[in-house]
């Protein structure tokens, strides 16, 4: 009576197991199973087991203080190493390790809370400034909601050529940063002379 020999090559990932050689196997190797039938035929199953490699990728990322990045399953704003497991169906899972660094980038832009358009050459224009500023669009309103200024150059404290009264005005600014981000700022500006 003939014996049947079946050769099987199997691969599992770290932390997994496979039933071969009469037990659950957790290590690479060659395992033998002998199966007997009532007719006297024996079958030999030879299983060669190896471990597929998990892909581990590391990346270094730097963000500005006050910003956050989604890594390690949550938004992170502190320096450290964060691990994400990327699940796969046909191969072993991958691990992505992000080494997050926080850097003081300074304020991306600055909007003053007062200006003095008195012609002395100091602080005469209400404008947005900053090292990371690409451009901005500014809107200034009086206390009745009337639009006094709209543009990218800054407000000189006039409306239709007339100097506006001392007081508090409302501004809205759409700010475009050099890294491609956009921001929207609003607040009050005090006009003093």
Concise structural overview:
The protein is mostly beta strands and 193 residues long. It contains no helices and 17 strands. It is rod-shaped, with a radius of gyration of 34 Å.
Structure characterization notes:
- The chain has strands spanning 4-12, 18-20, 23-25, 29-36, 42-51, 55-64, 69-71, 74-76, 80-86, 94-103, 114-115, 133-141, 147-151, 158-159, 162-163, 167-177, 182-191.
- It is rod-shaped.
- Helices cover 0% and strands 55% of the residues.
- With 193 residues, the protein is mostly beta strands.
Keywords for this entry:
0% helix, mainly beta, 55% strand, five-stranded mixed β-sheet
Helix and strand string, N-terminal first? EEEEEEEEEEEEEEEEE
* Unreliable sequence segments: none
Distance between the termini: 111 Å
Tally of DSSP helical segments: 0
Portion in beta strands? over 45%
* Main beta sheet strand tally, sense and closure: 5 strands, mixed
Q: Give the beta-strand count.
A: 17
**Mean pLDDT across residues:** 88
Gyration radius, in Å? 34 Å
Based on Cα principal axes, name the global outline: rod-shaped
Structural class of the helices, strands and pairings?
mainly beta
Widest β-sheet, arrangement of strands: 11-17-16-12-13
